Each structure stands twice: as C-alpha cells, then as structure tokens.
Amino acid sequence: MKVSREEFESLVEEALHMLPEHFKMALDNVEIIVEDMPHDDDLERAGASERKSLLGLYTGIPLTERGAWYGMTPVMPDRIQIFQRNIERFCKTKKELRHQVLTTVFHELGHYFGMNEEEIRSAMDDYI
C-alpha cells in the first residue's frame, strides 16, 4: 500500500499522539524522521542483512543509560528512522499501514526508553 510522504508522515504523527502521556512527557532530545529505505550504515548499525526487512531504527543513548553527564556539553539528538517503503511493502490496506506505522514507532521508542525486545512486546500489548 503506497501513500505520499505527507500522508505517511501524518501516520507517524498520529502514532506519536497515541503515546500515553507519561511517555510523551519523557521524550527529550530525540528526532523522528521518515526515510524511504535504510542505507548501508543503517543496516550495519541494526545488524540487519536484508535492506527490505528493516522497518525502523533507533540510534542514540537510551534514557536508562543517560547519566548526570548527559547534556553537560552539546549532544546530538537521538534518531528514530522510520522506513516508509519497507513498511508499505508489508501492508495491503490503509488499516494495515496505520497499524504497522504505530507498531514500528512504538517499537523504536521502546529502544529509546531503554527497553529490550521482550519489554517492548509486553508494553505494546498494553497500548496497541
């Protein structure tokens, strides 16, 4: 299911608005960007071998690892990349696309909050 970049970014924004308030309040120094496909260095960071299977990627220092030193000097924002073409490839309907964007955004934010895969799945069961 292909949509315009504008429509896809609206789905990402919708997913962010659906976050529980305490998660929204905890977001700090993180940018969320939409890209078509992952680059080679993205695949390397993710430990992924297949470009088409990577839906999102978190890069940065999770909140649970930020010590008192964090922010004492300028710090580049953490990044969450959402890969539009890969997500579209898995979805046949608008409803599936909306759900996959929500799932991917929540998953990558889980890494930002310092959660492991099991904790992310458990948290998503509560909200998705």
Residues in β-strands, percent: 5-15%
Q: Which structural class should the secondary elements be placed in?
A: alpha+beta
Count of distinct strands: 3
Basic shape: globular
What string, H for helix and E for strand, traces the elements in order? HHEHEEHHH
Which bin fits the share of residues in helices? Answer: 40-55%
Which blocks of ≥5 consecutive residues have pLDDT under 50? none
CATH architecture: 2-Layer Sandwich
Task: Report the CATH C-level class.
Answer: Alpha Beta
For the termini, the CA-CA separation is 21 Å
For the biggest β-sheet, the strand order reads: 1-3-2
User: Which radius of gyration do the C-alpha atoms yield?
Assistant: 15 Å
* CATH third-tier fold name: Zincin-like
Mean pLDDT: 93
Structural account:
- The mean pLDDT is 93.
- The protein has 128 residues and is α+β, with helices and mostly antiparallel strands.
- It has one domain: Zincin-like, CATH 3.30.2010.20.
- The two termini are 21 Å apart.
- It has helices at residues 5-17, 21-26, 40-46, 84-90, 94-112, 117-127; strands spanning 30-35, 56-59, 78-83.
- The protein contains 6 helices and 3 strands, in the order ααβαββααα.
- Strands 1-3-2 form a 3-stranded mixed β-sheet, sandwiched between helices.
What tags apply to this protein structure?
alpha+beta; 128 residues; Zincin-like; three-stranded mixed β-sheet
